[in-house]
Structures are given as structure tokens and as C-alpha cells.
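haha ok so turns out i had the wrong file open the whole time. this is the CORRECT one, sorry everyone. sequence first:
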Amino acid sequence: SGNYMARIMSFVTVIFILVPIIAPALGKWVLDLFGWEAIFHVQLFFSVLVCFWFWKRQPETLDVRNRVSFRAKVFVDGYKELMNYRQTMLFTLIWGFITGSFLVYLSTSQQIFQVQYALKESFPYIFAALAVTIGAATLLNGTLVLRFGMLRLVTLATIAYALVASIYVVLFFNGDNPPFWVLLLFCGLQFFAVGFIFGNLRALAMEPVGHIAGIGAAITGFLATMMGVIISTFIGRYVEDSVLPMFIGFMVCGIMSLLILSYFYFQKNRAKKTSFSR
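then structure:
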């Protein structure tokens, strides 16, 4: 729980970050050598491999005494209980905003680099390089979170997330794309901030609901993902011949996240004053 949970989440996330670093280059290699059909053959191979590995090596972690039957009532009760935890719901909302704006990049990056910047052959390596910035920040977060705390790191990273995007919007408000290296610099700074956000956000959202961790993770993940899909679909429609709409999305979602954080701090300070007066 707490900062130690955030630390573990950071190290786990680093492993996940390896996927966008390796996958595009691996996919391009398979595509060039064996054709597009081979992409699905490789997916099938890895699916079978993972299933076999889990079957042989991963025992069930939930004790038999703690298991419950699969019923709709379990999810309904879990949702009702989650709604009573203000911290969980507030950080799930922030998670949704950051996820939504980040999904815009994931869904439009190929169009941006291949069409707008005519870097078709270099795209997998650009994608991997930007993923490295997230991985580096996430790994660094695992070390810093025990010293500074996950709430402080999330706050500073969210400020940086909104600030970097705001600077881009001010500098390139006319809609013209900047030189490639300038875009790469802004994206790198943006995603470096993301590396300090995701793991800590999940830990903060899950901190009060450790006793229903499974249902809590499922429901908060569902809510954040649904928010993310809606936000990214809306913003992504405007990313046609300019990167500006993507950074406007970063900026707006960052500002909304900061407003929610401000409300959380306000409620936290008010609760402290009330407790002290009693």
C-alpha cells in the first residue's frame, strides 16, 4: 500500500513499456520479411506461449476461502462501495483524463509521423524512442516515490504535463507544424511527465480499496478506459494536418486534472482542520 505500492507499480509498468519500444520495430521486421499475414501468425504463437506459461508456472493467488461466486451483485455492491471513497473516484477521473489525451497520441502518431512528417520508414524507431522517455521516468519514479511521496510526484508531473502542452499551444497556435526535432522535444517532455503519473495515479486510486482490490481495479480501470476512449475519439477527429489539436488535448486534460487535484487538496485540508478543531 501507499508509496511502496506506487514503487512496485512503477517497476511493473516499466516491463509494460517495453512493449511499445519493441513491438513496432518487430512488427516492421516481420512485415518486411514475411508479409502482413505473418503478423497474425506471430500473435497466435505468442498467445499460445503465454497460455502455456501461465498454465505451467502461475498458480492461483486467491485463497479458496476468499473466493466468491461470479454474480452481478458482486460488481453492483463493489461499485456502490467505490463511490463512497472520494479519493478513489477523484484519482480515477484524473486517470481518465490523462489516459484519454495520451490515447490521442497512440491513435494518431502513425498518421503524424508518416503523413505529416513523411517519416514512414523511421516511424517504428521514433515511436520506440518516445516510449523510452516514459520508461525512464517510470523507472526513476520507483526510486523517487519513497523519498517524495506519490501525491507530490503526481502533482508536479501533472503541472509539467499541462505546462509543456500549454507552451506548445502558445508557440504554434497558428497550426503550422514545427520542425521534427522540436516536436520530438515537446513529445519527449510530455511523455516523461506521463511516466511519473500513471503508476502513482493507480496506487492513489487503489489505496483506500485494498480490501476489494480485484473489483476495485476492474471498475476503476473500466471507468478510466471508457473516459479515455470518449476523450481520445473526440480529440482525434481534429488531428488531420496539424499536431496542434493533440497538444490542445494534452493541455485541456492536464488543466482538468489539476482542477481535480486542487479539489482533492482542498477537501484534505478541510478534513484536517475539522479533525483538529474537534
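Residues 244-277 form the longest helix (34 residues).
again sry for the mixup
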